[in-house]
Amino acid sequence: MIKRIGYVILVALLLTGCGAKKRRTTHRKGAPVISRTETKETPKTTGERAEGSNLYPMPEDPGRFEKFPISDTEEYIKTFAEIAQYEMRAFGIPASITLAQGILESGSGRGELTLKTNNHFGIKCHTGWEGEFDFHDDDAKGECFRKYNHPMFSFRDHSLFLTTRSRYAFLFNYRRDDYKKWAHGLKQAGYATDRQYPQKLIALIERYDLHTYDEAVVETSDEPVRQPETEDTPEPETTLTHTVVKGDTLYAISRKYEISVDELKRMNRLNDNTISVGQVLNVGVQ
């Protein structure tokens, strides 16, 4: 009996000693495991919610879209013309409009907000934004603006911003190279409060010949230039909308307005059935 007890104690001590030599590593549930050489933050965007996001993933070599400091407007255009054309192919927004908005909103890449957030279009946080952010004085003091870890994600978010909000839907009935209609349409849809916003965009486009970037995309694209559905395209004021309230579902909304869920998703460029309280949906025309 004594020998057996001694044997058990000896085995226990050996097992304890071996266990002590093992290195125990624990990770918080759900936390990403990052090696010492992989500490760079993963880029954050609003997600791939619009048609072009999957067809046109972001370029693998972003270095050519990141040049600091940018000395003037012409250098800004040279730096970002390619990404603006890339977004035009993916989403149908004229490259000239994207570039002109970037020049105007970012001060040609030299504005205070752009330098600290890579936000080239002055897009504020808005409900539902889950990415990085920073505060900046604009219309009011200390407003929340979206922040990106690379300029090209600002350009992609600009495309998503316009293609996932129903109030901009009518713009996509215009020709892809009709920058004048797009400029006035953006003001009409409420993108900016400045009454001279369309004139400022058009002046920039014509001063720097930005429309040539639209023409280059159209000439090399297999897709025909989009024509307006009719000469008298309905103004946004004639568009029938529904503001999502608590308890709403796409199915319930589709029944209320007698349209199919698929049509409702198509009209609002939705890839799934997710909607949020306060979201404005296009449900037809009056």
Task: Please sum up the structure shown.
With 286 residues, the chain is mostly helical. The protein has helices at residues 2-21, 51-55, 73-91, 95-106, 112-117, 151-163, 179-188, 197-207, 211-220, 250-256, 261-267, and strands spanning 133-136, 143-146, 239-243, 280-285.
Topology:
Blueprint: H1 2-21, H2 51-55, H3 73-91, H4 95-106, H5 112-117, E1 133-136, E2 143-146, H6 151-163, H7 179-188, H8 197-207, H9 211-220, E3 239-243, H10 250-256, H11 261-267, E4 280-285
Antiparallel strand pairs: 1-2, 3-4
Helix pairs in contact: 3-4, 3-6, 4-8, 7-8
Question: How would you sum up this structure, described in words?
Answer:
With 286 residues, the protein is mostly helical. It folds into two domains: 62-220, Lysozyme; 236-285, LysM domain (Membrane-bound Lytic Murein Transglycosylase D, Chain A), CATH 3.10.350.10. 42% of the residues lie in helices and 7% in strands. It has eleven helices and four strands. The chain has helices at residues 2-21, 51-55, 73-91, 95-106, 112-117, 151-163, 179-188, 197-207, 211-220, 250-256, 261-267, and strands at residues 133-136, 143-146, 239-243, 280-285. The protein has a two-stranded antiparallel ribbon with strand order 1-2. Strands 3-4 form a two-stranded antiparallel sheet.
State the secondary-structure class.
Answer: mainly alpha
Number of domains: 2
Series of H and E elements: HHHHHEEHHHHEHHE
Q: Kindly state the mean pLDDT as a whole number?
A: 74
Distance between the termini: 95 Å
Strand order of the largest sheet: 1-2
Helix tally equals 11
The CATH architecture of the largest domain can be named as Orthogonal Bundle
Rg over CA atoms: 26 Å
Strand fraction equals 5-15%
Helix content: 40-55%
Largest sheet: 2 strands, antiparallel
Low-confidence stretches: 7-50, 224-237
CATH topology of the largest domain: Lysozyme
CATH top level assignment of the largest domain: Mainly Alpha
Shape: globular
Number of strands: 4
